[in-house]
Inverse folding.
């Protein structure tokens, strides 16, 4: 694999940004090029101007060639007009950001093959000057994340321009190696800025400005030659070169040491530390879009390798790593509020998020939003809400500890004790002190594709009751719940649910206070795709069961039977293709829990939404009747603001048809005229043809795909969490192809790949190809 | 109280920032002033140039006066030299940012008293141009948070300058009302920027630039007069004025509606909703430093009132709301990574934070850091760690559920079920389903000041055993643990602890797996100040008790007895004046938990630090032997980066002597020569004299002060959480004085005020005065 890496031991590469246009980037570049050559006479010095417009800019690399003749100069894209590249590009062919990046990377690779050396990449204009595609330079070059030399603005007003330019780079995750300045006696920007950047630990180099132009071209050249000679020999320039060079070395040393230091210091989540070593720890330098930049010490090809984040960073990632809009949203809220105490107070981001979430959930039952910090705490809140509401209504004469929940086998709701207690005993929790599974968990029929067919398969022990496998012509038909309600399967499900509950409650004397389930796909349990009809009927059967007397004169939004909790932490917010998976189930929960994608993949935050009738159960004359739960950072403005932005972005993408091509793909070839509109919402970013092919592999037992989730269950005798069947495939993906590695996580013998909501089609198709190559 | 408000119904105030120097701020201001006058002929239009330097800038308000003669112009501070204000100020008297803000606020107040009108505040230079004090304008004016009209840069390079200027304002929490632009045919910045800002929902107004200067001064004036007349009558200018005016109204309407909408939508933590109404909900527009800007609908004096955040936003706040350094740190990590999956991976902020925390904790036992999302989850992790380690060593033959913790009465460790289970039954948890207090909680002697004397008072039931109250000459003496170890109190404490444990374990047959305590002050339990000697002896007695056989050949860092957990979530990271309260106790925990101040008051994050011998208990051949706990956003880079910055800032403040004046205050008048160095670390930002005075009030039972915490226990018969004794005092503080309100929270009959680590002395003295006025 030829990896596109922006960091190699043999190549010191720096990016020259200007705090403004006409601040002397090229003059500084000339000095730096000459000085590097002086410092390392046997090494190459390259100067790269990726995009140049008009004779003025063209002069940049000619200027370098003239005054630092030993520097190897190159321009990748030349536009004729001397205007902003985005205007120049209009009259030329369209040039995309990724084309520019690919060419730059190819050049960096070529330079780094030629032995040790230094490369300066000079940008055009200021940090946010438009690129040919109309984006900003700071965004265009961000995936490379080269260390920056910022040429400050020495003119009047230049202090402000220089600091703002720094901030624009900083909030995009760039590191500034040094600030280059021309001294100006009148404005003294350099003295102010030197102190300013020193406080931030950033060095600066101040040099006298070039002398006035000579009377003739020839004399001018001589004057400039002298100037460059003098400058490049200055002690402080030499020191600056040494420091730049040292930073390159230190960056590599730091990357090299990180996994060892992490192994010494970090106690990892869900990790048997006996199984890990510095060699197995992935060092992530940075990330952008769907890709980590991971350090690979042994690779000759490069030291930073782009690696597809195939677990969507533990299922959180939605809008791309290093998304500048989310950074700005976070920083805006941090700047406007920091955190502000939320008990009895309101701030705009918390209010906007609650209103927006309730609006798009579009569930008439849900009226109130309770904030907490993550899915696990949000589920504890949900359980506290439901149990209190049940007790309040039914006034059971049993100890409060002994009431349980109804759930599904293989469910998982988080790692705090209360959330664990709502899950069936399993490897995750059986060794945990204080854990006690409280409830009953139904086994359930599963949806999967096997050898090209979508099927619903009852669990082994229930095939006598439910029958064998049922085949469907399309995934959509499985979601056509209204059509399936009257089917024989529907009747069997209802009967089974009723009889089981009756046995548990009336024969075994158990008490239950809530129905808790992850709608459609049970994630951590192994990407178990539940038959939506079964989940639909579980809720409706409990809600109408004579086991639970309904309150008289209740509004249609009042909960009946037991409060229904949807744990949408993993499955919500477009992870499965719809804003809420409750739409796919055609079932309105009384309580729903939202986290992970809520902040687009940036910071922890959770919303537990609840109905008025749940809320009312906590009204009382005493404070202790209230829901006495709260975290210090409840509804922290940073998280809320980022969530407001994330929801708006994702809803906007849906409205703009961002996923229409995938929806079309999944509609094609189905007998869909007969299914309802809501059923057609079952689609995936993973292509239908690819999923079909995977299902025919001899190594594959079954496959599922929905929304951005793809899960491949491999043939393996030793099923369950301790299985290692998928690790072979996982290793093959990590070898990568098409210039990037693919980092995925496995759950027993299930290997899953999770895209973000903004994954590019090319990357997805490339991963599909790699997967098929590995499977066949 | 004369509140300093920046928002009043009667005054539309806008701040004009320039994307650079010389972009035409004054020309735009003139047009806007004239157009406002045209739109609202009967109303006032003010123009304020707070700081003006030299004849060039001086011209600004003269220019307005000349071409918009009906505008009332004012300059507050005039410097003679035509250079940057910070240079000008060097040759003049020093001018602080707060002086400037106070004068601006006074002027805003005066204008708003004169009936309806509009005010434009024009800044000098660009957004980050230095102020006379050397800070940046964007920071200087931030506490006012006036809506912004940004004058874009229409020159070559101006796109970049304009976007960067916007970003610098945005990350400080400013709202942009509009972008004002001069059209330039060549560079077409305005077309690009109009689209750019439109996508962000920000309107813009593009106008033709002023004509070239006339040949004579007189002709030039005429040309400009014509230009202004024409411009101020343009339809699009009229629309822009209408839109600006409407935004002012909408901002007020929004603030007015927020508490009602919150009451409809939000389910508040720890809140009996029957007790709240829209009227009781505090609407927080924004915050800076220690102050919220709260909306007060009924106040004639102003609609936004500065309100001291006296609960330090639920004990989280350390470095000031809207701290730009923390915003930048958050945005940097968001830009560099977003969130990246942490299982088996490492990124720089997580590694730096773990290393930095372990370094400054300076506890040879602590070697590993486990990340989670808040204090409650971090405590669950700590308990899981300790119980597994105990079981692993002692191999008790009891059900895993039945092992308990040793703790202190009144303790609180968070609201998830596992954290609750570690606390004694109380009002907080007794109604919670699934809660079960698992352990034994010691009552303990408390430290307090009563009528001018620092005392240690045993609990009522233990006075027979421990004796009556002991008086100390100073708070420091109470912390002189080495000196007190051999005292009669020390011997009695040890004996009591040993006998109690023996009874619980050998007679009652109980099993305990950990000692869990909040060092020094038990916060949520009512700011209970435990005798540090008792806490010290509790740990050392358990560690050396023959009840727990020690492992052979253990290193000094190996835990003995039971693992000792310090819940430092509230008391750590300088809240009590030292980096860790363990220093005050002279006791090294085996596990310690850190949150709240960890991120300086910005986002949730928690670190659970543990010793190698605790960590080793989870090493095994199977994955399920590991600590199977983890949250999706484990070690999220935004939180880690902000925490790295916060710790560096706070340690830096200590090293620079930021709190030396307070330390001196608490040293004075004590017989401190005789106490150890560590005991002298007992000091408070609340002045010693003030604390003494409070203790003499007839309304006060006792008072404590340590670090940034002040807690006043009021005389009240009905003690406990349901008491309402302190609400009277709370209400008086909310009326405020000295131009600001004071928002505090109460715990039963304890009223506490918590400063941040950066609270200004003047504010603290002012609050002390208000408190004394209310108490006497």
């Amino acid at each position: 694999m030829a990896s596109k890496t922006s960091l190699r031991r043999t190549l010191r590469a720096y990016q020259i940004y200007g705090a403004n246009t006409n601040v002397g980037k090229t003059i500084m570049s000339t000095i730096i090029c000459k000085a590097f050559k002086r410092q390392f006479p046997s090494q190459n010095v390259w100067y790269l101007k990726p995009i140049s417009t008009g004779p003025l800019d063209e002069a940049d690399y000619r200027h370098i060639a003239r005054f630092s003749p030993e520097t190897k100069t190159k321009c990748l894209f030349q536009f004729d007009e001397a205007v902003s590249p985005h205007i120049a590009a209009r009259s030329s062919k369209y040039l995309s950001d990724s084309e520019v990046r690919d060419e730059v990377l190819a050049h960096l690779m070529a330079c780094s093959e030629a032995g040790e050396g230094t490369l300066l990449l000079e940008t055009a204009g200021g940090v946010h000057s438009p690129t040919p595609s109309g984006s900003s330079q700071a965004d265009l070059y961000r995936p490379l994340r080269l260390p920056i030399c910022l040429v400050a603005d020495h003119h009047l007003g230049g202090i402000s321009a220089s600091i703002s330019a720094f901030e624009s780079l900083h909030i995009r995750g760039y590191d500034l190696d040094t600030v280059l300045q021309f001294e100006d006696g009148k404005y003294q920007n350099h003295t102010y800025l030197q102190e300013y950047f020193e406080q931030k630990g950033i060095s600066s180099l101040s040099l006298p400005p070039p002398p006035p132009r000579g009377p003739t071209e020839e004399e001018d050249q001589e004057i400039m030659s002298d100037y460059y000679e003098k400058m490049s020999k200055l002690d402080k320039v030499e020191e600056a070169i040494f420091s730049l060079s040292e930073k390159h070395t230190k960056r590599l040393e730091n990357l090299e040491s990180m996994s060892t230091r992490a192994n010494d210091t970090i106690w990892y989540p869900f990790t048997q530390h006996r199984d890990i070593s510095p060699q197995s720890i992935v060092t992530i330098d940075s990330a952008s879009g769907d890709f980590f930049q991971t350090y690979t010490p042994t690779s000759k090809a490069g030291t930073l390798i782009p690696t597809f984040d195939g677990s969507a960073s533990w299922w959180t990632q939605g809008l791309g790593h290093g998304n500048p809009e989310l950074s700005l949203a976070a920083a805006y809220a941090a700047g406007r509020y920091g955190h502000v105490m939320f008990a009895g107070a309101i701030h705009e981001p918390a209010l906007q998020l609650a209103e927006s979430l309730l609006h798009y959930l579009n569930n008439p039952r849900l009226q109130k939003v309770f904030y907490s910090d993550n899915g696990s705490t949000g589920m504890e809140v949900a359980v506290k809400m439901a149990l209190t509401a049940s007790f309040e209504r039914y006034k059971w004469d049993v100890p409060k500890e002994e009431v349980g929940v109804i759930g599904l086998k293989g469910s998982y709701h988080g790692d705090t004790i209360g959330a664990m207690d709502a899950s069936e005993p399993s490897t995750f929790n059986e060794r945990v002190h204080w854990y006690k599974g409280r409830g009953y968990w139904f086994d359930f029929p599963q949806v999967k594709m096997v050898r090209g067919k979508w099927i619903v398969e009852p669990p082994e022990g229930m095939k006598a009751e439910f029958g064998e496998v049922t085949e469907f012509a399309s995934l959509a038909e499985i979601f056509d719940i209204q059509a399936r309600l009257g089917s024989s399967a529907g009747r069997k499900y209802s009967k089974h649910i009723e009889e089981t509950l009756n046995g548990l409650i009336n024969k075994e004397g158990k008490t239950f206070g809530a129905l808790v389930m992850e709608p459609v796909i049970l994630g951590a349990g192994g990407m178990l795709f539940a038959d939506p009809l079964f989940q639909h009927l579980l809720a409706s059967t409990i809600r109408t069961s004579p086991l639970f007397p309904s309150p008289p004169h209740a509004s249609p939004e009042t909960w009946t039977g037991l409060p229904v909790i949807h744990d949408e932490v993993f499955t919500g917010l477009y992870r499965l293709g719809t804003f809420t998976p409750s739409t796919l189930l055609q079932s309105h929960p009384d309580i729903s829990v939202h986290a992970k994608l809520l902040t687009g993949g940036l910071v922890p935050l959770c919303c537990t939404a609840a109905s008025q009738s749940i809320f009312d159960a906590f009204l009382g004359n005493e404070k202790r009747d209230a829901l006495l739960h709260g975290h210090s950072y409840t509804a922290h403005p940073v998280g809320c603001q980022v969530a407001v932005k994330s929801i708006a972005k994702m809803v906007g993408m849906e409205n703009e048809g961002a996923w229409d091509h995938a929806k079309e793909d999944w509609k094609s070839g189905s007998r869909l005229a007969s299914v309802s509109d809501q059923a057609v919402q079952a689609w995936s970013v993973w292509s239908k043809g690819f999923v079909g092919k995977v299902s025919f592999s001899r190594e594959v037992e079954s496959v599922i795909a929905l929304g951005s989730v793809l899960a491949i269950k491999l043939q393996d005798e030793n099923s369950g969490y301790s299985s290692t069947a998928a690790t072979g495939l996982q290793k093959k993906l990590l070898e990568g192809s098409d210039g990037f590695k693919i980092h995925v996580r496995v759950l027993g013998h299930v290997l899953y790949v999770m895209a973000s909501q903004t994954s590019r089609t090319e990357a997805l198709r490339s991963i599909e190809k790699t997967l098929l190559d590995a499977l066949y």
Chain A has three domains: 11-208+231-252, 282-315+684-776, 324-655.
